Amino acid sequence: MTTQMRDADMPLLDRIDAAIKRVTSGQGQMRVPVEATDPDVVLGDAKAEIERLQAGNAGMTETIEWTPVAEKQPAFGKTVLVCINEDHDATDVGWFDGEHWIGFEDGTFAPGEVTHWAEKPKGPR
């Protein structure tokens, strides 16, 4: 027979706050019966929740590999990410028309303004 812990229906963040208060006030020892705000119970639940969230985010990150335009150009008309003047904060989405780089936001770039390009990320799965 399983008994319901007191405060088990509290949201996890509220239980964490309550557990912190218990520990900082010197009342952090386990109680009998076990309660949902016992620090070891809260930490175990928090760890399980973090692991659940991490597992849900697996595969959600992608590595962007930048190719210098001096080494290679993308296929004609293919939409890619572009890096402008090696300033990592200045990026756009655009394409190379065989002669010029054209950005969706900035229009045609001056010669030499686009220094790198990268494939667009696949996005969420």
Write the layout of secondary structure elements.
Blueprint: H1 12-24, H2 39-57, E1 67-68, E2 80-84, E3 91-96, E4 101-103, E5 107-108, E6 114-118
Antiparallel strand pairs: 1-6, 2-3, 2-6, 3-4, 4-5
Helix pairs in contact: 1-2
How would you sum up this structure, described in words?
The protein is α+β, with helices and mostly antiparallel strands. It has 2 domains: 12-57, no CATH class; 67-118, no CATH class. 26% of the residues lie in helices and 18% in strands. It is built from 2 helices and 6 strands. The chain has helices at residues 12-24, 39-57; strands at residues 67-68, 80-84, 91-96, 101-103, 107-108, 114-118. It has a 6-stranded antiparallel sheet with strand order 1-6-2-3-4-5, with no helix packed on it. Strand 4 and strand 5 form a beta hairpin. Helix 1 (12-24) runs antiparallel to helix 2. The longest helix has 19 residues, at 39-57. It is rod-shaped and about 75 Å long. The two termini are 41 Å apart. The model has no long low-confidence stretch (mean pLDDT 81).
> How big is the Rg?
26 Å
Globally, the shape reads rod-shaped
Element string (H = helix, E = strand) = HHEEEEEE
Strand content: 15-25%
User: Got a strand count?
Assistant: 6
Number of helices: 2
Give the helix level as a range of percent.
25-40%
Q: Order of strands side by side in the largest beta sheet?
A: 1-6-2-3-4-5
